[in-house]
Design goal:
This protein has a single domain, classed as Rossmann fold, CATH 3.40.50.1820. The protein is about 30% helix and about 15% strand. It has helices at about 30-35, 60-70, 85-95, 130-135, 140-150, 155-160, 190-200, 215-220, 220-225; strands spanning about 5-10, 15-20, 40-45, 75-80, 100-105, 180-185, 205-210. The longest helix has 13 residues, at about 85-95. The chain is globular and about 40 Å long.
Length: about 230
Amino acid sequence: MQLYTHEWGAGERIAVLVHGLMSDHRTWHRVGPALAERGYRVLAVDLRGHGRSPRGDYGAELFADDLVETLPAAPEVVIGHSLGGLALSLAVERLQPRRAVYSDPAWSLAGLGQSVDPALFVTFKRADRAKVRMFNPRWSEADIDIELATVADWDTGTALALSAVHREDRTPEKPVVPSLVQFAGEGFLFSAPAAAELAGRGFEVRTVPGVGHTIHRDDFDAFMAGLEGWV
């Protein structure tokens, strides 16, 4: 499936941004321009079932296949958040970026992080402004506006396709390319043992303290600082 792609900048180096569940390219409204200022041509996709991309069947491998179908080979760097990190890890061997960044990726480390059923997020389809603010107290008003808009455009079938019998530990055994894993210090997916396990597998691991799962929206400056040397 060819995905909708939003672009910032016109640099010779390509940076790719892949959003998480319930979101789309608009989640990167600060990150995209910041990377463009660093000389990148930035491509932010809408995964299938999100934003302006088509609907269809859903599954982790399909999200990954779409990235390979849509994106140019061998970009300079790809950043994937949450579901985007999962899709990136399944596509990275075919995409062959020079560097990969996994921002609080939805890998479901068995026994090392909290097990979260994606089906739980279906209830957010009915979320109002107060509920979004309750779960994301650090977000700007602009980010809350964006969240309400992206959830309205989101197909809940994407969450259900990752639920129940489809849940499994998809943590990579080792990095395919030089890879950074960025953990949220106050997130719900990872633990200190998980970070140590990934470091042992060859990933560079950095924790951004004082932030929740969506690091780039909780603290944009800390998110960018956490990418130093990788973008």
